[in-house]
Amino acid sequence: MNVTLRQLRAFLAVHQEGSFTKAAETLHITQSALSSIIKELENNLELGLFDRSTRKLETSEAGRNILPAVIRMLDEMDTLTNEVKGLKELDYGKVRIAVAQQLASVELPRIISMYNTMYPQVEVSMIDCGVEKIQDIVSSGEADIGIGPERKLQTSLSKRLIFSQPFHLATLPSHPIAQGGRIRWKDIASLELITLRGTFTDLLIENLMRDSADYIIKPKHQVNFMSTALSMVKNGLGVTLCLPYAFESVKQNELVMVPICDPIIYRNFYLYSSKNREKLPAVQKFIDVYLKHMHFDRALE
Asked: Which residue range or ranges hold the HTH lysR-type domain (predicted)?
């Protein structure tokens, strides 16, 4: 059967009004157009839906039998239409974000607050996690998007470059290198360096070429977390490598950041999402707001 919603709505209007004339007015169409629609529906169903006489119009027995199903179908379609409209207009929805812990504490809370003001009916949740877990969380469907530094991309995901930042050295304001404005990579070899274990440092070694990165391969201290490294610097145990997005943590530890040059090495940060899952309007709108309003350049001021 090639039955359309238009035909079902026309049938229900005629039943409710008890008149083709009144039903046509309700539907804002001509009476002849309404008659054609009802005729098409009766042909499709191979049933007569109305008993017509010169005095009155009544719904036939067949029409009364299918009436509950027609009402149910139209109600369900109205519900579906409202659901789709709500999703499109962001009347409700969810946005789940997996983000590296350091990033989670800087720009993202400000942007979530802004988004909540714009779309208060949408629920935004943040999963702050280790960098290495971001792609797994997005791939499993636990998060809609992930934000973090460059890592080997899982085949089920896509990535979009959102910003890049150059490496800096975090040090005490009283340290001589804090007075010079910048420092060369080769000059770091003479300092007591504190580095992070794992990919953060491994990728840097590849950028510098292993032959000239011995002081990074064998630092004075190696720790797992940036918070630990910065606390050690604060207490005079050395200097550490960091990126400008960590400026709040650097400032809280009463430290300063010194740009590193010769060469200037950048670390790329990406927005990760699933190739196989369509983004809901609320998620896409959050991405738009994030890209428009993030200001990691503040860290460089």
From this structure: 3-60
**In 10-40, which positions are buried (b, 16+ CB within 10 angstroms) versus exposed (e)?**
bbbbbbebeebeebbebbebeeeebeebbeb
User: C-alpha distances in angstroms, 260 versus 78, 101, 194, 257?
Assistant: 61, 24, 15, 9
Residue 298 belongs to some domain of the structure? no
- Are β-strands 256-261 and 122-129 bridged in parallel, bridged antiparallel, or unpaired? unpaired
| Segment 225-271, tens digit of pLDDT | 888 999 999 999 999 999 998 888 999 999 999 999 988 999 999 99
The secondary structure of residue 236, as a DSSP letter, is: T
Distance CA 298, CA 301 (A): 5
Q: Give the count of domains, the chain.
A: 3
The CA distances from residue 205 to 33, 74, 169, 241, in Å, are 76, 64, 15, 12
Range of the domain at 140: 94-164+268-293
pLDDT in tens, 5-23: 999 999 999 999 999 999 9
User: Which residue is listed with tokens 């420092």?
Assistant: 183
The answer to whether residues 155 and 102 belong to one domain is yes
CA distance 100 to 219: 24
Instruction: Taking each helix axis as running N to C, give the angle between helix 107-118 and helix 281-293, from 0 to 180 degrees, rounded to the nearest 10.
Output: 130
